[in-house]
Structures
1.
Amino acid sequence: MGTTNNDISTLEPSSPSATAEAPDEAIATFAAIFDMDGTLIDNTPYHFKSWQALFKKYGKGEVTKQTYYTEFSGVPVMETIKRFFGADHDEAGLKALLNEKEEFYRQLYAPHVAPIAGLLNFLTSLKNAGVSMAMATSATIEDTNFILDRIPIRQDFNFIVNSSMVSRPKPHPDIFLKAAELLGMPPEKCIVFEDSLAGVKAANSANMKVVAITTGHTAAELHPVNLIIDDYMRLDVEKLATLFK
């Protein structure tokens, strides 16, 4: 993304790096759209722990891993806050709960922030091949900046899209369709990288190729997808291009 400030709601195409290699026109025929949580970073366990802390503090019972991975993961935090706390709080109260949950998460994860193995080199290879990229995340702007201020990948993305920019969150396809629109690429020429069940469902609904990463689910649970990875160490542009053949 072109802007260098922390306000990711301002979307501008990033400028090509003066040192980037010339794009390979034979390869750069698709766009890549990345989820953030669990896809660029392995932060899912810390989100899970922060939800557990919030539910325990307010006497809402236990959040199990099964509940988290099938019902919370990939869904905007406010959607989940409203679902479980909406009957007891007004809008201001719900916002306060969201901030509290996210503060729990940031305190837990801050000492451990790191990209998934191989990510930085993989993003560089995509950029050098002329592949346009967007991030499409259910995370809040504050949480997105929390990550992008610590990992040097902000400039790899032409656009950053969050759930406030669309009317329906994942598992609806809206956020991925918005990203494709901004990239100027038809959905069928886009590859989505996702870790969550909601995200995989959204990408399929958008008629996009799906690369699933096993940070939160087993390979058997992540379906239907076009490719399964554990990290980005052995993934390259040519392998992605074969998904369209």
2.
Amino acid sequence: MLREKLVRWNDRIGRRIKLSDLHILLAVAQSGSMAKAAIKLAVSHPVVSRSISDLEHTLGVQLLERNPRGVELTEFGKAMLNRSHAAFDELRQGVKDIEFLSDPTSGEVRIGTTPPLAASFVSVIIDRLSRSYPRIVFQVLTEGESHQTQRAALNERRVDLLMVRPWPDIADSQTSFEFLFDSPYVVAAGSNNPLVRRRRLTLAQLMDEPWALPAPDRAFGTFVVEVFRASGLDLPHATVVATDLEMRANLMRTGRYLSVVPQFWLQYPERDLLVRKLPVELPITAAPIGIVTLKNRRPSPVAQLFMQCAHEVAKPLAKKKP
């Protein structure tokens, strides 16, 4: 029976599915129409149509369906495309492995992370690794704060790894998480703010201060809302609402504004002497920082180098996991 199934696979599918057909299917899904896919691939419309038709005939199912806007994937098409991402990625990884074996001092690593981590901790890793391997290319993808967007980038193999907190939308049974360090969120102010000299403060005492806070409907903003709620407080009236951390940092450096920031941002790439942590104990503990990878995907040699360097850079901050 097993032999019969293998023969069926080789005869019906294994020898008949072409990578070029899968590539065309991916282009059609991304473009939303066969005509646009044809233009993108620099081929004729009949070539695209015939490729999709051959693929559907081989698989025995409909992969695309038409709608007023063009075409979209059926459930069968989505299933095929999900596996196609993995197939193309494995081929790409194979080429990268060969390149690394030919020249271990070169290669490429793609990192998905958040803007604050990219500007601080990740920058330190890149600087340290590039000194030993100057020909390595680093691609850093910071697609906002959406956990779903970050996880999609990992699933679609647009990044080799994520360096983030292991939120449920990102880290699950299909991924592996490597702990790097704990870094809570803190209330911070400019070093010339009089509150910096206080020995102890509570959130309640700071409600009337000028705040620069992230938008409450963004990923980090919802966390900040929960911090105040856990203290029995409403979110304070923010003088400035800005998702961009660098903008809030510049406002804090004036000495007038307070904000909530991740503690690692105050420490990397070097200690910010113009922004200080205030002696406020927050009621919610944030998740640790670590590396998220797909379980069924072996990181490339260059990605492994990056991960090793990340653990080295994190050593001063790393604490034993509870």
3.
Amino acid sequence: MFDFVIRNALLLDGLGSAPVRGDLAVTGDRISAVGELEGAARTSLDAGGLALMPGIIDNHTHYDAQITWDPGVSPSPQLGVTTAVIGNCGFTIAPCRGRDRELVMRNLTQVEGMSLEVLRQGIRWEFETIPEYLDLLERQGSAVNIAAFAGHSALRTYVMGEAATQRAAREGEIQQMRALLLEAMRAGAIGFSTSTSPAHNGEGGLPMPSRLADENELRTLVGSLKEAGRGLFMLTKGGHTKVSFLEELAAESTRPVVVAALLHNSTNPDAVFQDLEAIARANARGRRLVGAVSCCPLAMDFTLRSPYTFEGLESWQPALALKGAAYEAKLAEPRFRDAVRSELARPAHFRLFNGQWDKVQVIESSRRETEQRSIGELAREAGNDPLDFMLDLALDERLETVFSALLLNSDEEAVGRMLRHPATLVSLSDAGAHLTFFNDAGFGLHLLGHWVRERGALTLAEAARRLTSHPASVFGIRERGALKPGCYADLLLFDPASVNRGPKHRVFDLPGGHPRLTTAALGVEGVWVNGVRLDGQTGAGQARPGRLLRDFSA
């Protein structure tokens, strides 16, 4: 007898096959049968023609801190995610010595837009090493399945302390990091992650530790995955990091390489496609590289108190370490403004903001007449330069003005091409980070609703594959991502006619009552993890059927 059967569903197997009407049975934590089923079941659900697919695998999240106080990793489960990969970009909280906790938290506050007070109140520091951190996750359980990277910046900080943000590592320090990485791989880490992106800065504008690594350090650490015999290398690359170098690392380590964050820049529209073609050529030579792309426009809410939008600019660096009156004086300084204008006028391979002032809006201001209007429009109306207008407005309002910027991936024709490119991986939700700036945890529902139903850029079957079996294959996640007997029963039931993510809104449920942006699911009728249905409840009463994944095939 089956434990439960979902009958009369439109079955999307996650492998790209054409949808078929049928039933799916679950026994224990696994799918036990698929097709036209006659057997008895303890419970059954008539899907009424709704679509049933494997649960979404979100391969780019930053729940490393949040999961220690919120095993429900809200809002991902409600948005159809049944497996989340944490520790991307090298920004992890393990390993961490007690003396370095404040430094690690302060860096996360800067680079990932997290509140320092939230981190201080929320993180359960019941670990020091990566194996101890993984054991904590396994003990407490989680709503979804979790796989965890060993993060480069954390490894550097553990070995080098404050020097991690100041200099290249010495050979002995590199060997210590290598030993820690191999220890993490033996304990069940999914791989090694890092960042070379100039947008990634820690406290006071100092580069995140991984950005100080030289080629020898990267070759040694990525090469250690060959000794481990498994695992993949993930990095968020700066424009100076060439795909040819990453191909060398893939060849030397024999491991897959995930290249993030490939986003379309309308002011340099060919750059991302040049990277994707370089990845495709590497694939043709037998190297396993894939380009991580987003199906969402990158839009951020921000104030000038925390201007993540601009912090990757070289000309903004003099302001990053300043506070209070000194910071405000720097924003008012003509020479500082001229330097920012000059940099924005020059083309760049990748940067978040590219001087598109008509895509920057005022959201909240004491001058109500400016709200919901673009900086470009307001500056033209005032006969002013747009940078001057924005900075003057913010300074007049004690930096409380809230802006919203549409930064990258705004050209939907180009994004559609990226989503269909054979060398891409649908990714980059950043769930768990940038909580006050944006929330793309519903990326999978956006792909199913906007890109399938509204734009017809992908078939429903192909979109389901891109969210399930494809990332499972890239990351070596066993027996998940497909509706096949023997696979784990991670399931998403939804209405193709209405599925999408809802509008973003602010809630105040972080530790200490602090705010975050979230979004609701539209058209989702059920989510199951390892055969257990999640009921949407959050907090202490939420089910925790998810598992810490430690055994991978990649």
4.
Amino acid sequence: MNLARSLAVAVLAALPFGVSARAEDAVKVTHRVLTQDKGHAVIINEKGEVEWEVPVKATSHDIARLPNGNFLLHTGDTTIVEMTPDKQVVWKHESKPTDAKRGIQIHSFQRLPNGNTMVSESGNCRIIEVDKDDKIVKEFPLTVEHPSTHSDTRQVRVLANGHYLVAHENDGAVREYDENGKVAWSYKLDMAGRPASPGHGPEGHGDHVFSAYRLPSGNTLVGGGNNNRVIEVTPEGKIVWSIEQKELPGITLAWVTELEVLPNGHIVIGNCHAGAENPQLIEVTREKQVVWTLKDMTNLGNSTVVHQLLDVSEGVIR
């Protein structure tokens, strides 16, 4: 990192959460990104070059670089592996259906501070935690109104208080579960004043939520999926901030997937199925200024669902 950028990062990091520096005061923003699309998991560096890649044929709905430098990769509908940078698999989990008549899909996972791994199982309608030997050490059923092997859940995150924040795609709802699996809070997405419409691209609209994150304020930031927007809601369910589908100049949001909240308050938005004319990743300030985008139809495609910025590690909510 050069001196100018080091100073800029230091200034941004010193700002309170939710406060952004003016775009004209900062050097050009670049990022090193871990993501997956077009049959591979890939690291794209600040110059847009492929720095590392490994075949991953399934469309990943979660991904992570761990503190030890290894990667948690979603290698199939039912499998997760931990892989070293030199591409050695050192741990693997495979979920199996609890009912032979139903299928199962994994859509989210998270390595926990105690070394266990949380796995959300659609089809089984449950959350499990497994240890280093892939033994289930905890499980509880989820509240699901519209069961679907493909869409019971999307992203799930374990909160600092031990609760679980679950995006229920097919229910169009975010539910927070306590450590015993009881629903402690919920939020139902609305349609933003627009009628439902079919399609995975910008033309599609619904309430199929993808992700949710608890902010330090106690509010919840929601990646709306085919709701085509990002919203922040209070514990009472009031929307206090949003980015609507066509609010960013020259950009249309389609299936809004994973979000990252950076220490300077900026938000990185996953914009999946948006077509070649739109970026796959967008970084915006709280004032809704676009400061960085990733638009790469060579190494990636129209199904870039997940990402992790690798040059910003401390204090990121994702």
